[in-house]
Amino acid sequence: MWWFSSPRIAFGEDSLEFLETLEGRFLIVTDTNLVKAGIVEKVTRYLKGEYEIFDRVEPDPSFEIVEEGVIVAQSFKPDYIIGVGGGSSLDVAKGVRIIYENPDLDPEEISPWTDVEEKGVKLILIPTASGSGSEGSNAIVLTKKDESRKIASIHPRIMADYAIVDPEMVNDLPEKVAAFTGLDALSHAIDAYVSAWKNDFADGLCIQACKLLFNYLPRACKDRNDREAVEKVHNAATLAGLAIGSSQAGLSHSLGHSIGGVFHIPHGFACGISLPYTTKYYSRFAMEYYEELAYHLGIQAKGEEAIDELVKKIKSLLASLNVPDNLRGIFKEYGIEEKEFYDKLDKLIYNSSTDNTVLTLVDIPSEEDFERLFIYAFEGREIDF
Ligand SMILES: [Fe+2]
Protein backbone atom coordinates (compact mmCIF):
# COMPACT_ATOMS: atom_id res chain seq x y z
CA MET A 1 0.00 0.00 0.00
CA TRP A 2 1.20 3.50 -0.89
CA TRP A 3 -0.04 6.93 0.15
CA PHE A 4 0.21 10.22 -1.61
CA SER A 5 0.16 13.09 0.86
CA SER A 6 -0.16 16.78 0.30
CA PRO A 7 -0.90 19.85 2.34
CA ARG A 8 -4.00 21.84 1.34
CA ILE A 9 -2.51 24.33 -1.05
CA ALA A 10 -3.68 27.90 -1.61
CA PHE A 11 -1.99 29.16 -4.78
CA GLY A 12 -1.99 32.07 -7.17
CA GLU A 13 -2.42 35.79 -6.61
CA ASP A 14 -3.99 36.79 -3.29
CA SER A 15 -3.72 33.33 -1.80
CA LEU A 16 -2.21 34.91 1.34
CA GLU A 17 -5.73 36.10 2.11
CA PHE A 18 -6.43 32.58 3.35
CA LEU A 19 -4.64 33.61 6.56
CA GLU A 20 -7.51 35.97 7.40
CA THR A 21 -9.75 32.98 7.97
CA LEU A 22 -7.66 31.70 10.88
CA GLU A 23 -7.78 32.67 14.53
CA GLY A 24 -5.39 31.77 17.32
CA ARG A 25 -1.77 32.23 18.32
CA PHE A 26 0.81 32.22 15.54
CA LEU A 27 4.52 31.49 15.80
CA ILE A 28 6.37 32.62 12.69
CA VAL A 29 9.63 30.83 11.90
CA THR A 30 11.79 32.82 9.52
CA ASP A 31 15.12 34.60 9.10
CA THR A 32 16.06 38.10 10.07
CA ASN A 33 16.68 39.29 6.49
CA LEU A 34 13.09 38.55 5.54
CA VAL A 35 11.87 40.51 8.54
CA LYS A 36 14.10 43.47 7.62
CA ALA A 37 13.05 43.31 3.96
CA GLY A 38 9.38 43.60 4.95
CA ILE A 39 8.53 40.16 3.52
CA VAL A 40 7.30 38.79 6.86
CA GLU A 41 5.05 41.82 7.19
CA LYS A 42 3.25 40.64 4.02
CA VAL A 43 2.15 37.68 6.17
CA THR A 44 1.59 39.26 9.58
CA ARG A 45 -0.80 41.88 8.20
CA TYR A 46 -3.31 39.11 7.61
CA LEU A 47 -3.08 37.49 11.04
CA LYS A 48 -5.98 37.71 13.45
CA GLY A 49 -4.45 36.96 16.81
CA GLU A 50 -1.25 37.31 18.73
CA TYR A 51 1.96 36.40 16.96
CA GLU A 52 5.60 35.94 17.82
CA ILE A 53 8.49 35.92 15.34
CA PHE A 54 11.41 33.49 15.69
CA ASP A 55 13.84 34.89 13.13
CA ARG A 56 17.07 33.08 13.91
CA VAL A 57 17.05 30.68 10.96
CA GLU A 58 20.30 30.65 8.99
CA PRO A 59 21.21 29.07 5.63
CA ASP A 60 22.00 25.35 6.03
CA PRO A 61 20.13 25.33 9.35
CA SER A 62 21.40 23.14 12.14
CA PHE A 63 19.63 20.88 14.63
CA GLU A 64 20.42 23.49 17.29
CA ILE A 65 18.28 26.12 15.53
CA VAL A 66 15.30 23.74 15.66
CA GLU A 67 15.89 23.29 19.40
CA GLU A 68 15.98 27.07 19.87
CA GLY A 69 12.70 27.41 17.98
CA VAL A 70 11.12 24.70 20.14
CA ILE A 71 12.07 26.63 23.30
CA VAL A 72 10.31 29.72 21.90
CA ALA A 73 7.26 27.59 21.03
CA GLN A 74 7.19 26.11 24.52
CA SER A 75 6.91 29.55 26.07
CA PHE A 76 4.58 31.09 23.43
CA LYS A 77 2.28 28.04 23.04
CA PRO A 78 1.16 28.60 19.42
CA ASP A 79 -1.91 27.13 17.73
CA TYR A 80 -0.23 27.65 14.36
CA ILE A 81 3.42 27.50 13.35
CA ILE A 82 4.02 29.45 10.15
CA GLY A 83 7.25 28.92 8.24
CA VAL A 84 8.04 31.92 6.03
CA GLY A 85 11.11 31.72 3.84
CA GLY A 86 13.18 29.54 1.61
CA GLY A 87 13.82 25.86 2.29
CA SER A 88 15.82 26.64 5.44
CA SER A 89 13.04 28.46 7.29
CA LEU A 90 10.40 26.00 6.12
CA ASP A 91 12.50 23.04 7.23
CA VAL A 92 13.11 24.58 10.64
CA ALA A 93 9.37 25.31 11.01
CA LYS A 94 8.65 21.64 10.23
CA GLY A 95 11.25 20.57 12.76
CA VAL A 96 9.87 22.91 15.41
CA ARG A 97 6.31 21.58 14.99
CA ILE A 98 7.20 17.89 15.28
CA ILE A 99 9.61 18.39 18.21
CA TYR A 100 7.28 20.84 19.99
CA GLU A 101 4.62 18.13 19.86
CA ASN A 102 7.16 15.43 20.80
CA PRO A 103 9.75 17.02 23.08
CA ASP A 104 11.47 13.71 23.82
CA LEU A 105 12.09 12.97 20.16
CA ASP A 106 15.69 13.28 18.98
CA PRO A 107 15.43 15.05 15.59
CA GLU A 108 18.35 13.01 14.28
CA GLU A 109 16.43 9.81 14.98
CA ILE A 110 13.31 10.66 12.97
CA SER A 111 12.49 8.03 10.38
CA PRO A 112 9.26 7.39 8.44
CA TRP A 113 8.40 4.72 11.02
CA THR A 114 8.93 6.75 14.19
CA ASP A 115 5.84 6.87 16.45
CA VAL A 116 4.87 10.46 17.12
CA GLU A 117 2.07 12.29 18.88
CA GLU A 118 -0.09 14.85 17.09
CA LYS A 119 -1.26 17.57 19.45
CA GLY A 120 -3.24 19.68 17.00
CA VAL A 121 -0.68 22.37 16.28
CA LYS A 122 -1.20 23.37 12.64
CA LEU A 123 1.77 23.94 10.34
CA ILE A 124 1.50 26.49 7.52
CA LEU A 125 4.36 26.94 5.07
CA ILE A 126 4.77 30.02 2.90
CA PRO A 127 7.70 29.86 0.47
CA THR A 128 9.55 33.09 -0.38
CA ALA A 129 11.59 31.38 -3.09
CA SER A 130 10.57 29.04 -5.89
CA GLY A 131 12.77 26.05 -5.38
CA SER A 132 13.03 23.88 -2.31
CA GLY A 133 9.44 22.67 -2.56
CA SER A 134 9.76 22.15 1.17
CA GLU A 135 6.20 23.44 1.51
CA GLY A 136 4.98 20.30 -0.29
CA SER A 137 7.27 17.63 1.09
CA ASN A 138 7.46 15.52 4.22
CA ALA A 139 11.23 15.96 4.52
CA ILE A 140 13.59 18.13 6.54
CA VAL A 141 17.25 18.68 5.71
CA LEU A 142 19.35 19.85 8.65
CA THR A 143 23.08 20.29 8.95
CA LYS A 144 25.25 18.59 11.51
CA LYS A 145 27.78 21.36 11.91
CA ASP A 146 30.52 19.35 13.60
CA GLU A 147 30.55 16.87 10.68
CA SER A 148 29.94 19.32 7.78
CA ARG A 149 27.13 17.03 6.80
CA LYS A 150 23.46 17.36 5.91
CA ILE A 151 20.94 14.89 7.24
CA ALA A 152 17.54 14.40 5.63
CA SER A 153 14.65 13.16 7.78
CA ILE A 154 11.28 12.01 6.49
CA HIS A 155 8.03 11.57 8.43
CA PRO A 156 4.30 12.05 7.68
CA ARG A 157 3.99 14.54 10.58
CA ILE A 158 6.62 16.70 8.91
CA MET A 159 4.10 17.44 6.14
CA ALA A 160 2.44 20.86 6.49
CA ASP A 161 -1.31 21.20 6.97
CA TYR A 162 -1.38 24.16 4.58
CA ALA A 163 0.94 25.65 2.00
CA ILE A 164 0.41 29.13 0.60
CA VAL A 165 2.02 29.50 -2.82
CA ASP A 166 1.49 33.20 -3.52
CA PRO A 167 3.69 34.82 -6.21
CA GLU A 168 3.52 38.04 -4.18
CA MET A 169 6.07 36.44 -1.84
CA VAL A 170 8.71 35.99 -4.58
CA ASN A 171 8.37 39.23 -6.57
CA ASP A 172 11.61 40.66 -5.23
CA LEU A 173 13.79 37.58 -5.57
CA PRO A 174 17.21 38.54 -7.03
CA GLU A 175 18.02 36.96 -10.42
CA LYS A 176 20.75 34.75 -9.00
CA VAL A 177 18.54 33.39 -6.22
CA ALA A 178 15.75 32.80 -8.72
CA ALA A 179 18.26 30.83 -10.82
CA PHE A 180 19.57 28.51 -8.13
CA THR A 181 16.23 27.93 -6.48
CA GLY A 182 14.67 27.14 -9.87
CA LEU A 183 17.46 24.68 -10.59
CA ASP A 184 16.76 23.00 -7.26
CA ALA A 185 13.15 22.54 -8.34
CA LEU A 186 14.26 21.06 -11.66
CA SER A 187 16.58 18.65 -9.83
CA HIS A 188 13.64 17.53 -7.68
CA ALA A 189 11.42 16.92 -10.68
CA ILE A 190 14.06 14.95 -12.60
CA ASP A 191 15.32 12.99 -9.58
CA ALA A 192 11.80 12.04 -8.52
CA TYR A 193 10.86 10.89 -12.03
CA VAL A 194 13.69 8.33 -12.13
CA SER A 195 13.47 7.22 -8.49
CA ALA A 196 12.93 3.64 -7.40
CA TRP A 197 9.86 5.02 -5.59
CA LYS A 198 8.44 6.70 -8.69
CA ASN A 199 4.68 6.31 -8.96
CA ASP A 200 1.72 7.44 -11.04
CA PHE A 201 0.72 10.18 -8.61
CA ALA A 202 4.12 11.86 -8.54
CA ASP A 203 5.10 11.29 -12.17
CA GLY A 204 2.56 13.74 -13.60
CA LEU A 205 3.75 16.39 -11.17
CA CYS A 206 7.35 15.84 -12.28
CA ILE A 207 6.49 16.18 -15.95
CA GLN A 208 4.49 19.37 -15.46
CA ALA A 209 7.16 20.86 -13.18
CA CYS A 210 9.88 20.12 -15.77
CA LYS A 211 7.82 21.63 -18.58
CA LEU A 212 7.10 24.79 -16.60
CA LEU A 213 10.72 25.19 -15.49
CA PHE A 214 12.26 24.70 -18.93
CA ASN A 215 9.70 27.11 -20.42
CA TYR A 216 9.50 29.82 -17.79
CA LEU A 217 12.61 29.81 -15.60
CA PRO A 218 14.80 31.89 -17.96
CA ARG A 219 12.01 34.48 -18.29
CA ALA A 220 11.32 34.51 -14.56
CA CYS A 221 15.02 35.06 -13.81
CA LYS A 222 15.47 37.88 -16.30
CA ASP A 223 12.40 39.86 -15.30
CA ARG A 224 10.68 39.52 -11.94
CA ASN A 225 7.86 41.68 -13.29
CA ASP A 226 6.98 38.93 -15.75
CA ARG A 227 4.05 37.85 -13.61
CA GLU A 228 3.10 34.85 -15.71
CA ALA A 229 6.61 33.39 -15.65
CA VAL A 230 7.12 34.12 -11.93
CA GLU A 231 3.84 32.46 -11.00
CA LYS A 232 4.46 29.42 -13.22
CA VAL A 233 7.91 28.85 -11.72
CA HIS A 234 6.51 29.31 -8.21
CA ASN A 235 3.87 26.67 -8.90
CA ALA A 236 6.45 24.37 -10.50
CA ALA A 237 8.58 24.42 -7.36
CA THR A 238 5.66 23.21 -5.24
CA LEU A 239 4.69 20.55 -7.80
CA ALA A 240 8.26 19.25 -7.69
CA GLY A 241 8.23 19.42 -3.89
CA LEU A 242 5.10 17.28 -3.77
CA ALA A 243 6.79 14.84 -6.16
CA ILE A 244 9.89 14.38 -4.01
CA GLY A 245 7.65 14.09 -0.97
CA SER A 246 6.31 10.96 -2.64
CA SER A 247 9.09 9.61 -4.88
CA GLN A 248 12.08 11.18 -3.06
CA ALA A 249 15.07 13.03 -4.42
CA GLY A 250 17.86 11.12 -6.15
CA LEU A 251 21.38 11.20 -7.46
CA SER A 252 21.71 14.92 -8.24
CA HIS A 253 20.86 15.42 -4.57
CA SER A 254 23.32 12.77 -3.34
CA LEU A 255 26.01 14.88 -5.02
CA GLY A 256 24.33 18.20 -4.21
CA HIS A 257 23.93 17.55 -0.48
CA SER A 258 27.54 16.51 -0.29
CA ILE A 259 28.86 19.54 -2.21
CA GLY A 260 26.66 21.93 -0.23
CA GLY A 261 27.64 20.38 3.09
CA VAL A 262 31.37 20.65 2.41
CA PHE A 263 31.65 23.86 0.36
CA HIS A 264 28.47 25.80 1.25
CA ILE A 265 27.59 26.83 -2.27
CA PRO A 266 23.83 27.25 -2.82
CA HIS A 267 22.04 23.92 -2.84
CA GLY A 268 20.31 24.62 -6.17
CA PHE A 269 23.61 25.28 -7.92
CA ALA A 270 25.15 22.16 -6.38
CA CYS A 271 22.28 19.95 -7.59
CA GLY A 272 21.54 21.74 -10.86
CA ILE A 273 25.14 21.65 -12.05
CA SER A 274 25.34 17.95 -11.12
CA LEU A 275 22.27 17.18 -13.25
CA PRO A 276 23.90 16.82 -16.70
CA TYR A 277 26.36 14.33 -15.21
CA THR A 278 23.95 12.36 -13.03
CA THR A 279 21.47 12.19 -15.93
CA LYS A 280 23.97 10.72 -18.37
CA TYR A 281 25.51 8.36 -15.80
CA TYR A 282 22.30 7.17 -14.17
CA SER A 283 20.43 6.63 -17.44
CA ARG A 284 22.10 3.22 -17.67
CA PHE A 285 19.93 2.12 -14.73
CA ALA A 286 16.77 3.99 -15.68
CA MET A 287 16.88 4.43 -19.45
CA GLU A 288 13.15 3.94 -19.95
CA TYR A 289 12.28 6.60 -17.35
CA TYR A 290 14.61 9.20 -18.82
CA GLU A 291 13.47 8.40 -22.35
CA GLU A 292 9.85 8.90 -21.29
CA LEU A 293 10.65 12.18 -19.53
CA ALA A 294 12.58 13.38 -22.58
CA TYR A 295 9.58 12.52 -24.77
CA HIS A 296 7.29 14.65 -22.58
CA LEU A 297 9.74 17.50 -22.95
CA GLY A 298 9.49 17.35 -26.74
CA ILE A 299 12.52 15.15 -27.45
CA GLN A 300 11.66 12.64 -30.16
CA ALA A 301 14.92 10.65 -30.09
CA LYS A 302 15.22 7.25 -28.40
CA GLY A 303 17.84 5.53 -26.25
CA GLU A 304 21.23 7.16 -25.77
CA GLU A 305 20.33 9.86 -28.25
CA ALA A 306 17.35 10.91 -26.13
CA ILE A 307 19.61 11.10 -23.06
CA ASP A 308 22.16 13.21 -24.92
CA GLU A 309 19.38 15.57 -26.04
CA LEU A 310 18.10 15.81 -22.49
CA VAL A 311 21.58 16.59 -21.19
CA LYS A 312 21.92 19.23 -23.91
CA LYS A 313 18.59 20.74 -22.87
CA ILE A 314 19.71 20.95 -19.23
CA LYS A 315 23.03 22.52 -20.22
CA SER A 316 21.35 25.10 -22.42
CA LEU A 317 19.01 25.97 -19.54
CA LEU A 318 22.09 26.49 -17.33
CA ALA A 319 23.63 28.70 -20.03
CA SER A 320 20.47 30.78 -20.35
CA LEU A 321 20.63 31.40 -16.59
CA ASN A 322 24.35 32.34 -16.78
CA VAL A 323 25.20 29.35 -14.62
CA PRO A 324 28.34 27.33 -15.45
CA ASP A 325 27.76 23.71 -16.43
CA ASN A 326 30.65 22.40 -14.33
CA LEU A 327 31.65 22.62 -10.69
CA ARG A 328 34.98 24.30 -11.42
CA GLY A 329 33.07 27.29 -12.82
CA ILE A 330 30.76 27.68 -9.84
CA PHE A 331 33.57 27.07 -7.32
CA LYS A 332 35.52 29.89 -8.96
CA GLU A 333 32.55 32.21 -8.46
CA TYR A 334 32.56 31.33 -4.75
CA GLY A 335 36.34 31.65 -4.38
CA ILE A 336 36.99 27.94 -3.82
CA GLU A 337 40.36 26.74 -5.15
CA GLU A 338 40.77 23.62 -7.28
CA LYS A 339 43.15 22.21 -4.66
CA GLU A 340 40.44 22.43 -2.03
CA PHE A 341 38.11 20.38 -4.22
CA TYR A 342 40.65 17.60 -4.67
CA ASP A 343 41.72 17.77 -0.99
CA LYS A 344 38.13 17.18 0.07
CA LEU A 345 37.20 14.68 -2.61
CA ASP A 346 37.21 11.75 -0.15
CA LYS A 347 34.81 13.60 2.11
CA LEU A 348 32.58 14.39 -0.89
CA ILE A 349 32.53 10.73 -1.90
CA TYR A 350 31.81 9.52 1.63
CA ASN A 351 29.00 12.02 2.19
CA SER A 352 27.29 11.34 -1.12
CA SER A 353 27.55 7.56 -0.96
CA THR A 354 26.03 7.58 2.55
CA ASP A 355 23.43 10.28 1.84
CA ASN A 356 19.84 9.19 2.53
CA THR A 357 18.95 9.94 -1.08
CA VAL A 358 20.85 6.87 -2.30
CA LEU A 359 18.26 4.65 -0.60
CA THR A 360 15.69 5.34 -3.31
CA LEU A 361 18.02 5.06 -6.29
CA VAL A 362 17.28 2.24 -8.72
CA ASP A 363 20.93 1.27 -8.34
CA ILE A 364 23.53 2.71 -5.97
CA PRO A 365 26.76 3.84 -7.64
CA SER A 366 30.00 2.38 -6.31
CA GLU A 367 32.41 4.68 -4.47
CA GLU A 368 34.62 4.61 -7.58
CA ASP A 369 31.71 5.85 -9.66
CA PHE A 370 30.91 8.59 -7.14
CA GLU A 371 34.55 9.67 -7.36
CA ARG A 372 34.40 9.77 -11.15
CA LEU A 373 31.07 11.62 -11.10
CA PHE A 374 32.54 14.36 -8.90
CA ILE A 375 35.69 14.66 -11.01
CA TYR A 376 33.79 14.71 -14.30
CA ALA A 377 31.29 17.27 -12.93
CA PHE A 378 34.19 19.37 -11.66
CA GLU A 379 36.14 19.22 -14.89
CA GLY A 380 33.07 19.46 -17.12
CA ARG A 381 33.91 16.20 -18.89
CA GLU A 382 31.36 14.18 -20.81
CA ILE A 383 30.46 11.00 -18.95
CA ASP A 384 32.21 8.14 -20.76
CA PHE A 385 32.30 5.43 -18.10
FE1 LIG B 1 16.76 20.07 -3.35
**Average pLDDT figure:** 95
Following the backbone from N to C, one meets helices and strands in this order, namely EEHHEHEHEEEEHHHHHHHHHH
Largest sheet: 6 strands, parallel
CATH class of the largest domain: Mainly Alpha
Determine the oligomeric state from the structure. single chain
**Strand percent estimate:** 5-15%
Enumerate the strands of the largest sheet in spatial order, edge to edge or round the barrel: 1-8-5-4-2-3
Shape: globular
At CATH's second level, what is the architecture of the largest domain? Up-down Bundle
CATH topology of the largest domain: Dehydroquinate synthase-like, alpha domain
Number of domains: 2
Cα separation of the termini: 37 Å
Give the C-alpha Rg.
20 Å
Question: What is the name of the CATH superfamily of the largest domain?
Answer: Dehydroquinate synthase-like - alpha domain
* Low-pLDDT runs: none
Number of strands: 8
Descriptive overview:
This protein is 51% helix and 10% strand. It is α/β, with parallel strands linked by helices and 385 residues long. It folds into 2 domains: 8-170, Rossmann fold, CATH 3.40.50.1970; 175-379, Dehydroquinate synthase-like, alpha domain, CATH 1.20.1090. Helix 4 links the parallel strand 4 (80-85) and strand 5 (122-127). Helix 8 (251-263) crosses helix 13 and helix 9 packs across helix 14 (367-379). The radius of gyration is 20 Å and the shape is globular. The two termini are 37 Å apart. The model has no long low-confidence stretch (mean pLDDT 95). The structure holds fe (ii) ion. Residues 184, 187-188, 249, 253, 267, 271 line the site of fe (ii) ion.
